[in-house]
Amino acid sequence: MAKNNNNRIFLVTVFIFAMILLLALLMTSRGAAKYEEQKTARNGNKKMSPIVQAYAARTENPPTAERALELLKAGNLRYAASNRLSDPGVGKESRKFLALGEWPYAVILTSSDSRVPPEYFFDAGLGDLVVVRVMGPVVDSTVIASVENAMMDGKCRLLVVMGHKDSRAIRNAINAVEYPEMNESYNLDLVTQKIIPAVLKVKKSTHTEEGLRKAVTLANINLVIQQIQAGSGDLQRLVNSGKIRIVGAYADISSGKVEFLNESGK
User: Fold this and answer.
1) pLDDT tens sequence across 214-257
2) Whether residue 257 sits in one domain with residue 166
3) Does some domain include residue 56?
4) How much of the chain is in helix, strand and coil states, percent to nearest 5?
5) What is the domain range of residue 14?
6) Is 266 among the domain residues?
């Protein structure tokens, strides 16, 4: 009988010891896992490429309009010098990160001309720019809504309205003033009519043919900026409060250089 009791005590002791050992191992495992999680969190940014690190930083601290303008200028300098980044942020790692959301630093409203893609002209990657492209460029409610959609939440603080050299829309508007009897299609003529006020603001006699086209382009840029602000009280309030800026730009197709205008944003 005593022997049986001793066996039971022995078995219970072994069981208790085994449970203590198992619990200790479990706690050690959890502690190691927690340590690894903390280590990963601390070193996470070190494992990201510089491009994704910069993008991740924007999720917490969106660039100011001034900083966004600096990024655009730096990117354009690289493009014009044929010194573009090997990967501006279009690879698998960038795509995976961007599946979480978007935090662009600038909106570019420009013409639909195939020769002036903003992503190339500013050497930008995925998620960097919101690009709105329409012939002219001209403005309607859809264009304004596209800009509002990108800028109302405060993540994106810079809007660039960019015209360019050798624009067909600008040529059409100049020709329409000189030869009012000429017309193209109904829809093309609608665009032309929106640019004609810019043509009428420019004194033709003071310009060469090429100079006239640039002058009309610049006048149209300013007209578009005014129309955006007049068409959106929300954007106008953000401009007045200094929370966003709107600047003009002129792209030279042959040189690749972008000239920024009215940088005060007023």
Assistant:
1) 999 999 999 999 999 999 999 999 999 999 999 999 999 999 99
2) yes
3) yes
4) 60, 10, 30
5) 1-47
6) no
